[in-house]
Design brief:
The complex is a heterodimer. By secondary structure, chain A is α+β, with helices and mostly antiparallel strands. Chain A is built from eleven helices and 14 strands. Chain A has a domain of 110 residues: CO dehydrogenase flavoprotein, C-terminal domain (Enolase-like, domain 1, 2-Layer Sandwich), CATH 3.30.390. In chain B, β3 and β4 form a beta hairpin. Chain B is α+β, with helices and mostly antiparallel strands. A five-stranded mixed beta sheet of chain B has the order 2-1-5-3-4, covered by helices on one side. Chain B has two domains: 76 residues, Ubiquitin-like (UB roll), CATH 3.10.20.30; 72 residues, DNA polymerase, domain 1 (Orthogonal Bundle), CATH 1.10.150.120. The chains are: A alpha+beta, B alpha+beta.
Amino acid sequence: MTELRYFAPRTLDEAIGAFAAGGSAARILAGGTDLLVQMRSGAVKPGLIVDIKKIAEMTAIEETADGGFRIGAAVTGAVLAEHPRFGKVWPGVLEAVNLIGSKQVQGRASAGGNLCNGSPAGDSVPAMIAAGAVVTVQGPNGRREMRVEEVPAGPGRTKLKPGEILLSFTLPPRPPGSGDAYLRMIPRTEMDIAVVGLGVGLTLKDGVCTAARVGLGAVAPTALLVEPAAQALIGSKLDDAALEKAAAACRAACRPIDDKRGTIVYRTKVAGVLLKRTARVAAERALQNRGN
Amino acid sequence: MAKLHVSTTINGEPMEFLCEPNDTMLDALRGPLGLTGSKEGCSSGDCGACSITLNERLVCSCLMLAAEAEGQDLGTIEGMAQGEKLHPLQQKFLEMAALQCGICTSGMLVASDALLRKNPRPSEEEVRFWLAGNLCRCTGYDKIVRAVLETAAEMREAAQ
């Protein structure tokens, strides 16, 4: 049995040094709601655990000078929900993060962990994609930024390079008339894994959609940015024809598997249904945000 | 291999214990700390029987490493009653028979207490959503939900 070492550094430099030195046996610990389950099942046998929660940057929520938000990778769902402004500006991202697991899990789980765990069905990922969120990662060779949709590589895998640690999500400032939403299909009301998850972020001006992003989860090896769906919405008044065109684009983007949660046919159909529902919720929120 | 030495606060008392790096907080509570009120159900964060608070936030102690408790403030079921005096939730669970085998009960109580501290006036739906991470194989949940709602009402009255 490999000996396990636990390390909870206070600085990012220490964390990066230790994580890189630990090589493939090292794991980052944020909330632990995936890692500890994987360790218990024997799927993962780390030699080193680097707990990043004592690094201030990892647990901070900041409003950036331009009106955006920067969310540390280890910020928990419960902390994000208590932020006085975040849920007003990004209700869709918040509802997606808050759909991850139970209240107990919310006390620990983070959007950073949800993204790095690499599940195609992670709830926060399509919402972050729809929000146009950018992640900052840092490794032994320095810091870089990636769009959220560029991070997942496949089930359980990311495009982070060896030794790189996810630091934070940066969400852009919101123009007036913007709204976002996330809906997922599950067969019960709570505590389940998405059969399909879909996030929409959009901006309306005089009733016309001037910007849109669509993120789609649980229907392909990774969560997807669906550009053709966004293009179908942009320039429209979100009328039935435009929504159907965007729904068709979502169905076309699906490359799902048949499993116990849903069949290929079902997931594909639901992706279109969710696009229409989610876009309507995002549009209602956009109308309420005209004055800010 | 040397064990880790952890200094923490549990139910307001400073505590120290030794653990292995891969021990969970539940292992430490039920082992060296002798606080066996937190129960082990699934060990994967699904059942809530091991619910505790970490810096006043509800968490599963099976999904937390014991080493993470260093310098933190934990609350367990053992801290709920004041000596011989039961917490109103505990009293109401007894009166309304909101438990049968008892394995889920300490988790249910810790979770319900966390809810009422945050929201003294929850709706039935809010109680059911909040307790979705606490599984009970005996009661069918209804008695538990009613006990929480009734306790909330009585605590509000008492506070007036």
